[in-house]
Amino acid sequence: QVQLVESGGGLVQPGGSLRLSCAASGLTVSGYSMGWFRQAPGKGREFVAAIRWSGGNTWYADSVKGRFSISRDRANSGVVLQMNSLKAEDTAVYFCVAGRPIASSVATEAAYGYWGQGTQVAVSS
């Protein structure tokens, strides 16, 4: 059974940083891409970032480029999302995902077959 378990969410002031982690079990991560989507209150889910385990290719939403960084966590067969210079509009539930998207579909929800339960990130003063 595949499980994706997120951790690291919380409350932070604007301009601050948070580090989200996702640990995977039940799948061989080297054959997958892993990443993050988020859902703000009253809005649909949106792509944040993804990384291809084999090769390390990364993709980012324009809204987080230069502020967020995704990397592989080999110790936990997962991924880490380092979020810097956080803004109020980054407030959302962040979901870890795993799948086998082609490059043109990395930002598409349907490309990911496995989803975590989500972790809340709140950016507020």
Order of secondary-structure elements: EEEEEEEEEEE
SS-based class: mainly beta
Basic shape: globular
Oligomer: single chain
| DSSP helical segment count | 0
Helical percent range?
under 10%
Report the sheet with the most strands, covering strand number, pairing sense and barrel closure: 7 strands, mixed
The overall average pLDDT, rounded, is 96
How many beta-strand elements? Answer: 11
Please report the distance between the alpha carbons of the first and last residues. 40 Å
Low-confidence stretches: none
Proportion of strand residues:
over 45%
Radius of gyration from the alpha-carbon trace, in angstroms: 13 Å
Written account of the structure:
It is built from no helices and eleven strands. By secondary structure, the protein is mainly beta. Strands 2, 4, 5, 6, 9, 10 and 11 form a seven-stranded mixed β-sheet that branches. It has a four-stranded antiparallel β-sheet with strand order 1-3-8-7, with no helix packed on it. It is globular. The model has no long low-confidence stretch (mean pLDDT 96).
